[in-house]
Amino acid sequence: MNKLTFLIALFLSLGMVGCVENEIKLPEATQIGANTLGCKINGKPFKCIGKAGNQHPVSTPGIRVYYFRDDGILEIDAEPNYGWFSKGESVFFSFKYDGGLGKYTDIEDVAEGSNSYVEITRFSDGIISGYFQMTKSFERVVFSDDKKKHKIKTTKKYTEGRFDVKL
Predict the structure, then answer these.
(1) Are strands 62-68 and 73-79 parallel, antiparallel or unpaired?
(2) Is 4 a domain residue?
(3) Is the pTM of this model over 0.90?
(4) How far apart are CA 105 and CA 116, in angstroms?
(5) Is residue 57 part of a domain?
(6) Which domain covers residue 50, as residue numbers?
(7) Rounded to whole angstroms, how far apart are CA atoms 91 and 74?
């Protein structure tokens, strides 16, 4: 192989490596308290690793779990970037929870008829694990250049969701 052929081959191979997307892989579905949450949001992989504790969500990135036993509400919040005002994706869901294992469908802010659920597969020894899928509709306010206020409705599909958190 002459020098020119070698350089062309090297250049092309380096160019191909640069074109490969650094794909996010969803975390494994485990029940060991791995402090992971992952899903696809509108088909795009999302992953959050690490527990943020139970501080106010603006304070630190990570996964938070709140169980309001008296109200029968369980909330899970995953923010891989810093706080509510970050530009990245986040996952939040709140649902009626009776303390047992199984599927729950009374989830806050899901689209009607969307076959949304949260399935708790473990809630013992300080570990909560499970699966979820849901379609959520959000309404947000934006301002146009002429300072008029507009409401925009956004729908997001969360599929292949899994979480495993040590409380």
Answers:
(1) antiparallel
(2) no
(3) no
(4) 6
(5) yes
(6) 23-166
(7) 14
